[in-house]
Amino acid sequence: MISTEEYKAIVSELMDELPEEFFRQLTGGVILSEAAAVPDYARGNDLYTLGQYQVYSGVRQIVMFKGSFDRLYPQAGVPEARGILRGVLRHEFRHHIEFLGGIRNSSSLEAEDARKKRAYLAGRGAGENGREGGGNP
Hints:
Layout: H1 4-16, E1 29-33, E2 51-56, E3 59-65, H2 66-72, H3 78-101, H4 109-122
Parallel strand pairs: 1-3
Antiparallel strand pairs: 2-3
């Protein structure tokens, strides 16, 4: 398992790879959390959130969850962690850029994530509302 210091250093290096323009209006910056984040629709310990783009009260930020990373990749060394975290960080920055650009259509990352959520729930016998059997009431 990589240390918190290694995790922070990797995320910092990955941020340095990105153009300065990506950080425009990211008023809350990139936050590193020790938490293991489980989506409210998860069915047990089979799904963790590695990163999340958040918008609230005018603040836009990206949160990276080290606890989730540790649970999913306990044996990862620095090179493997770098590759995984690069994908997560860029995914979250895509959310940010699409948000700023007002992109909310069927080809957006938000729509893609919603499709993945529906597929996850369908594979576990629950609808989008989290009830067993699926469908809306």
